[in-house]
Amino acid sequence: MIDLHTHTNFSDGTDTPTELVNKAMAAGITTLALTDHDTISGWDEAIGALRPGLSLVLGAEISCQTTDGISVHILGLLFDPTHNELIKTLENTRDNRHGRMEKIIRRINEAGIDISMADVLEQLSDGATLGRPHLADALVKKGVVASRDEAFTKMLHNSSKYYVPHYSPSPEDAIKLIKAAGGVAVIAHPMASHRGRVISVETFGSIIQSGLDGIEIDHRDHTPDEKVSLINLAREFDLVMTGSSDYHGNGKLNILGEYTTIPDQWEKLESKANARRVVSI
Q1: Per the domain annotation, does 152 fall within a domain?
Q2: Which of 34, 118, 128, 176 is most buried, taking the most CB atoms under 10 A from its CB?
Q3: Within-domain flag for 119
Q4: Number of domain units in the chain
């Protein structure tokens, strides 16, 4: 099985990279992508945990934003981690998250809810990328909500009065950086409308023209009709079609390997990188 989208506690997952690798092996996954949000900090631990039978695809899920403020996530896979411009963009995105979190917390405080930055940072592993899921976990610990899902449904969704946008590259710029670093670019869950507004056909065209390699089609957050639309788009533009779990450990309901990528599509995607960077032992 090939699962090309997972997270650890170096972003908003709950498993360590070692735990993720062990669970992937137990689940029968043979090719696993590690794609924490805007960071490659978990790569070394994941490599150290590898055992025969599992190949590791190293990457990151890059937080992007269109000119009209729509959130888009681009999976960068198999890129050179020494590419300075790409790594600096990831750092800038992470750094901006702290200022954004402080603004969100102030808005929540103004509504009479007692939560602090210290409460949120308690939920963050060393070196992890700060995000709204950590705020959700702090709200759960404080008893404000019962779960992460409730926190996002009631308070932390993109249309919430507490929402604050943050610095992100455009998806076009992110794709160009990934390609410049020798990697491949896949747009993640592009039709997940319950998360907020989704991109238009016109924007999708611009993203494809920037060098997009693939579309994540099989995903828990896509309806059957949305999958059909994405399949047609992929066929029209000869894009790779992937399927992924978007696993977050206990942070989401997603199960490792619940959606997977078929081998010929993975081979096509992997061949588009400028070097063979899959790690195995």
Answers
A1: yes
A2: 34
A3: yes
A4: 1
Order of strands across the sheet that contains 71-77: 2-3, 31-34, 55-65, 71-77, 184-188, 214-218, 240-243
Residue 208 counted as domain residue: no
The boundaries of the domain holding residue 113 are 102-156
Q: What is the CATH number of the domain that holds 149?
A: 1.10.150.650
- If you ran DSSP here, which 8-state letter would residue 280 be given? -
Per-residue CA distances from 76 to 57, 62, 115 (Å): 10, 7, 34
E strand intervals along the chain: 2-3, 31-34, 55-65, 71-77, 184-188, 214-218, 240-243
pLDDT in tens, 169-192: 999 999 999 999 999 999 999 988
Q: Residues 27, 16: contact at Cβ < 8 Å? A: no
Whole-structure pTM value: 0.85
Q: What is the pLDDT of residues 89-135, one digit of tens each?
A: 999 988 888 888 999 999 999 999 999 999 999 998 776 778 899 99
1 occurs within a structural domain: no
Classify 80 as helix, strand or coil: coil
